[in-house]
Amino acid sequence: MSFEPKIAGFLCNWCAYTAADLAGISRLKYPDNIRIIRVMCTGRIEPSFVLKAFASGADGVLVAGCHPGGCHYQEGNYKAYKRTLLLKRLLPQFGIAAERFRMEFIASSEGEKFAAVVGEMVAKLKTLEPLQTASDRLAELDGMFGEAEGGTGGGR
Amino acid sequence: MADKLKFAFYWNASCGGCEIAVLDIHEKILDVAALADILLWPVAVDFKKHHIRDLPDKHIDVSFINGGTRTSEQREMAELLRRKSKVVVAFGACASLGGIPSLANFHNREEIFQRAYIETPSTDNPKGIFPQVKTALPEGDLELPLFFNHVYRLDQVIAVDYYLPGCPPTPDMIAAAVTAIAGNSLPPAGAVFGGPSTVCDSCKRVKQEKKVKGFHRIHEIIPDPERCLLEQGIICAGSATRDGCGTLCLNANMPCRGCFGPPDGVADQGAKLLSVLSTVVDSNDFGEIEKLIDQIADPAGYLYRFAAASSLLKHKLTGDGKSTVQAAERSQLEVAK
Ligand code: FES
């Protein structure tokens, strides 16, 4: 089955986002499946952002930031890398293939690397099936849901 | 006494600990009895479902329902009590968050049946017999409640007015809730009885720098009773968990396991705890980081021990991407409706 996967891309302002910009300015061709969300640093990306992207129907998630040693807030990318490793162990327990989630270090000068990473991810995701949103999936499980869904947990 | 309050207690998918928790308020239980008539409490009082069915709607002042919802019978009882009650309180971690039973949401019904009725070493079931919703016998049809694919929090099944989290809720909290009900001083609807902040916030242990060079399970070391357990490499859920429990586990030199669910403002308790655990890893060497992260066995079990039904991702997928429900199952569901 061929489909157009949706990728949520969290890019740090100083490196990966600038690289995406550069890819555009250099008129590099890469698939338009990625929706870019700019954050100041990959260290700002809470694991819940990644889970929420998947829960909302993203087929893949990319986190990209500065190279080790190059983070503008010193250690943000190391923190992101540590979270990435644990997330990659958690996602398969939810039945989500670890390869749907990727972290890359992309310097501001590496427009080509950014384009290549997005291209590779899209190709990979096309070999998998589209992911349903978590609510659709839950609605289907026992046919109990739809508009009746309650809060988000513990009373909020 | 005509103006006594009317209470109901009910249990869904739970262990019975919440029932014991009610009794744990000790002599205050007499105050409750003086204050309220108990119209339903299967563990202690001999009223039946039909007694409740025959009541006028909204006759019960407060129903305290504990347990997750796993079967059609549990849903039916929750719906019945909702109709008959003015106020419904989700009592305990399972009703509030899904609780431990909702860890089953990391498996599908087929896997659960396979495990329970075929694979467990103590099972002898050569014909592979599974429980059925309907079994036709010469004497007539036998029926069992439908076993859902998913364990639900109470507020995913019926509207809930208040939450009393905890595994189980502490006697103080129960007393506070009952006092608030009796004194007509209830908080705004949707409120959680418990603190607004985290267990770490209430924890008296000495906290220095969160830098961990190795994770240990609680039986592997004897922890220093004065120092933060996470700093000693013990997985403690305190930083991602609502306070209000009085740090009971920490007082006993045991780590917080997260039974109060996420604090205000946190959408997904597991994601929050994941963030904490991974970033305390004290290394900037990629190989070493990987080794340390690998020491966290079964992340889903640690991160969502009490709140799997409240996770953003909600349920495990089978065959990456595909929904879990087979056509045959769906028709079984239709039968049950
Ligand atoms: S600023 Fe780019 S990763 Fe921190």
Summarize the structure.
Chain A has 156 residues and is α/β, with parallel strands linked by helices.
What's the total count of β strands of chain B? Answer: 9
* Hetero compounds: FE2/S2 (inorganic) cluster
Query: Structural class per helix/strand content of chain A?
Result: alpha/beta
What is the terminal separation of chain A in angstroms? Answer: 39 Å
Which oligomerization state do the chains in this entry correspond to? heterodimer
CATH superfamily membership of the largest domain in chain B, which one?
Answer: NADH:ubiquinone oxidoreductase-like, 20kDa subunit
What would the principal axes of the Cα set say about the shape of chain A? globular
Number of helical regions of chain B: 13
Order of helices and strands of chain B: EHHEHEEHEHHEEEEHHHHHHH
Give the low-pLDDT segments of chain A: 146-156
Q: pLDDT average of chain B, as an integer?
A: 91
Main-sheet strand order of chain A equals 2-1-3-4
Mean of pLDDT of chain A: 91
Tally of discrete structural domains of chain A = 1
